[in-house]
């Protein structure tokens, strides 16, 4: 590139003429220039050397081009301080000349009018005696007019000379911008064609993703994306590096019959028994048919007929002015957010959706090995995110004291209860009991951060799962959800972070990594990887898949220490058997795109039911009106409920002040079906189910429920 071209490049470009090229190890390249440093990684040492040679040649060419450019070539780089000063001086001179032209124009108009008057007076003269004086005055004014005209002509000439001097630079810059636009359009067109061909190739070979466990993630991409110290202009830009998030292990698929190769250079750090993997009566073997066959079997059981659709989402245009005018003169807490941003489910119902793949826990009950059971628990923890991939709408914030029950004891063997136990900060407690041998409970508080271009949602709180027969007690926490394109563009959701699942009885662990989306990565989007290990740290299974489609499990038969990564960590090489599918996402129902992308379970969550508590989310009027498509009425009802809740909160605050003045203790809001206590496993203060709800439902005694609707 010439220096003029360098002045119009994209953000993140490094000028090779002043760049420093170095190598870290056999595969890494460091490219630095000033405050920006890029770490690049090649597939092999040979490929790295090819890139270093190409970069050095390009650097030498850039230096020659910079030295050979003449002063009037129009290729100066305006990024340098001297060029900036020259450009500023040129603009200042042009501005000064323009002011001179304006002044001369005023003077010409003034003296021209005076000359015209003098000529008129000369024409009206009758006395020869006065003619001498008048002619003298006319000559003086004509001379002054001539001087002013000459000054203006000279100023115009100077302006024209300057404009001609710099016109070539401007023309070259404009021409370069046009060429760059055409080049960019061609590049985008090529990328679109490549993307379409890759999609067709992936659809034509669906087995590629499942067999990709034999490929090392750290070797993908000959030149990965930049990972550097961003300049000031990049402070608000978030970059994800595919190499930075590469897993710390490599998996290689082994032949079950010949997994112990005599000539192998792998040192036997740990070994497994592949014959255990091929038992036909294994829980893993039956899990391959779990998703669809089990749903078919469920249809054979006598159960209540549930609804399979809801009214289509209305095509309401969002009037931003109608929202903004409601903000004028009001406190921030009193600004009503319209239901246009919502979906007709509450946060309590969304929390209950985590149970969509509860059959994974039913299978885990049958596992004899704790590490095998951990695999199903890990798959269950990932499956809860599958419903979020298209669900960009916001659930309703539950009112304080609002509850939601899901009684599927006869159909699926479990019953679930949620309660909103705090409003500031918003917190929900959840308890699930299954007669098939497990209990799950959690308290989730949502923390969010708005960062301009995206919204980060961080669920706080631990999820507990206990199996009745074995006593295995699993604890894990959720990862961060990020909603992108908040201001402009189409909304999309990503999950990123790590989940550590711990069995507090056997001390088994599973580390799951949710890889954030990266434009530069050639990895599968929404990728999840992990390793299941026992109390001694010995790895038994490798987990792999995506959080929106499926999770697979591969039994480790051999492990060894591999090469050292760029961060100085030694990678582990796992030799595994062929993967087994533990979980696969159910297909969305027909017409889901017009029903908020609800799954089959989500369509039934707000279905009216009898005998539920008067605080149940199904009875919330604004949510029911929205589901029916009456959004204007829903907005009015939503505002009424929020104002009613604020009045209750003000009353409690007044009671707290009164109690303080009287020297009494004020407990504040006390949850109805849950109670605060210290968890014996984690030592944290949690809201645990204290009982009484299902007994009250049997008696239909809801006298203790508050009036919140």
From TrEMBL:
InterPro entries: OSBP_sf (IPR037239), Oxysterol-bd (IPR000648), Oxysterol-bd_CS (IPR018494), PH-like_dom_sf (IPR011993), PH_domain (IPR001849)
GO terms assigned for molecular function: cholesterol binding
SUPFAM superfamilies linked to this entry: Oxysterol-binding protein-like, PH domain-like
Keyword Electron transport assigned: no
Region of interest (Disordered), residue spans: 65-87, 202-237, 254-308
UniProt-annotated location(s): Membrane
Lineage, opening ranks: Eukaryota, Metazoa, Chordata, Craniata, Vertebrata
GO BP terms: lipid transport
Protein's name according to its UniProt entry: Oxysterol-binding protein
Biological source species: Stercorarius parasiticus (Parasitic jaeger)
UniProt membrane topology term: Peripheral membrane protein
Domain annotation PH: ranges: 1-60
Keywords: Coiled coil, Lipid transport, Lipid-binding, Membrane, Phosphoprotein, Transport
Pfam family, one: Oxysterol_BP
Protein family membership: Belongs to the OSBP family.
The organism's place on the tree of life at top rank: Eukaryota
Residue ranges with Polar residues bias: 284-295
Gene Ontology cellular-component terms listed: cytosol; perinuclear endoplasmic reticulum; plasma membrane
